[in-house]
Structure formats: structure tokens, C-alpha cells
Design goal:
This protein has 220 residues and is an alpha+beta fold. Helices cover 28% and strands 21% of the residues. The chain has 3 domains: 88 residues, Rossmann fold (3-Layer(aba) Sandwich), CATH 3.40.50; 66 residues, Dna Ligase, domain 1; 44 residues, no CATH class. The protein contains 6 helices and 12 strands. A hairpin with a 2-residue loop joins strand 9 and strand 10. The longest helix is centred in the C-terminal third of the chain and has 15 residues.
């Protein structure tokens, strides 16, 4: 079985380490190669049996949709969610609206698009984050706010740096868990425990905690 690991380009050090880790693991059992997602070279994927999809940043606003859509068109099996799930879940506001419509509990929220302002904070504390980013991008130590002033500053920063809507969501304090699901199978639940982080760090998944302090975070 031939597996092609497809990734974003260029790779930073963190993502290069991730790609190498996946390739090294797969090489123990399969024939493996890796390549960046380049639209001019997509046809070369036809000879592979499976694409291990590590792309999340190609294209513009709906960036993680593109490779699944192309692979679906070519009839090549791939890992991860399909085109529809990626299109819906890249937008946190849309995801939360669907959850509400399905009767699934989700914290109170509203979104503020570029060019708009919010003059009221109906719940506190709140966390402000970009609508269409992942990996905790756009979540800083001061992204949890308790006043209209601080919320407006956090919203403006997201508009300026990411040119997209800001999601303002009630901040829920407490233990944090992550749950993986493959098809209908729920994988073992993992708790993310911040209690061992240095005192000067925030105890939630900000960008710096997630990307630079993983070794000091407990995963139970």
C-alpha cells in the first residue's frame, strides 16, 4: 500500500516535525512519500492508494476544504474529515449555530464582522477569538475579557490581524477535555491539565501555551 503524506508549504519548524513524525510512523508498515499541496501537481497523486492529509492553510478563507474536495473529485481515499465537515467546522460561528439548531449545548456567543462594532457584552467573562483560525491562533493571554472596552480592543485586534470576524463567546472556567471521534467511534477522552504551567502563564489554551509550553502541560 502506498501512502502519500500531503502537507502545507512552506513548513515551519513545528509542522516539519509533525510531518516527519507521521512519515516515520507510517514507514514502519507502508510505502510512504510526502509532498506539499500544489495545485499544479495534484494529478501526480493518482498513483497513491491513500493520502494522509495534513493540510490546513492552503488557499484563502476556506483553506482546509481544498485538498479534500480535489481528492474527492479524483476518487482518492484520504484521512480526516470530508469536504462538507471541513467547510462547516472551519467557521466557529456556523458550527455553533448548527449545534444550537440540533439542541447541543454550547456557550452563549455572538460574532462581530470587520467594519462592525459591538457596544454591549451580555455575558462575562468572555473569550474573543478569530472565527476561522485553528491551532489557537489569535488567542492571547488577554483574550479573556470582562468589560466592553477590553472586548472591543480584542475584537479590533482580530479584525486587523486576521481580516475576519471575531467570535465573542462566554468563557467557561473548569477542566478541559479533548475527545477524538472516528466515524461513530469515540476514542479515549484526554484531559488537558494546565496546573503544572509556570505561574505567569494563562491556564487556558492560548497560542503560546499550545505551541510553546506543551512539554509543561499534563495530558491525562
Amino acid at each position: 500500500m502506498r501512502i502519500t503524506v500531503v502537507h502545507d508549504a512552506p513548513l515551519d519548524l513545528h509542522h516539519e516535525k509533525m510531518v516527519n513524525s507521521v512519515v516515520n510512523s507510517l514507514e514502519k508498515s507502508f510505502e510512504v512519500d510526502s509532498r506539499p499541496f500544489e495545485i499544479d501537481a495534484v494529478g501526480r497523486l493518482r498513483g497513491t492508494d491513500l493520502v494522509f492529509n495534513l493540510t490546513t492553510a492552503m488557499g484563502n478563507t476556506e483553506r482546509q476544504v481544498h485538498l479534500p474536495a480535489v481528492l474527492d473529485l479524483l476518487g482518492i481515499p484520504f484521512t480526516g474529515s470530508g469536504t462538507t465537515a471541513n467547510a462547516l467546522c472551519i467557521n466557529k460561528t456556523l458550527t455553533k449555530l448548527i449545534m444550537k439548531a440540533c439542541g447541543i449545548s454550547t456557550p452563549e456567543f455572538f460574532s462581530v464582522r470587520p467594519g462592525e462594532t459591538a457596544d454591549n457584552l451580555p455575558f462575562s467573562p468572555a473569550i474573543v477569538k478569530p472565527v476561522k483560525e485553528g491551532g489557537a491562533k489569535g488567542i492571547w493571554e488577554d483574550s479573556v475579557v470582562e468589560s466592553v472596552d477590553d472586548m472591543q480592543k480584542a475584537v479590533s485586534r482580530i479584525h486587523e490581524r486576521f481580516e475576519q470576524a471575531a467570535l465573542v463567546e462566554r468563557f467557561i472556567e473548569g477542566r478541559e477535555f479533548t475527545v477524538g471521534i472516528v466515524n461513530s467511534e469515540v476514542l479515549p477522552i484526554m484531559e488537558i491539565d494546565f496546573s503544572s504551567l509556570p505561574d505567569h502563564l494563562e491556564t487556558f489554551y492560548s497560542y503560546r501555551v499550545k505551541q510553546f509550553h506543551g512539554d509543561e502541560t499534563n495530558y491525562i
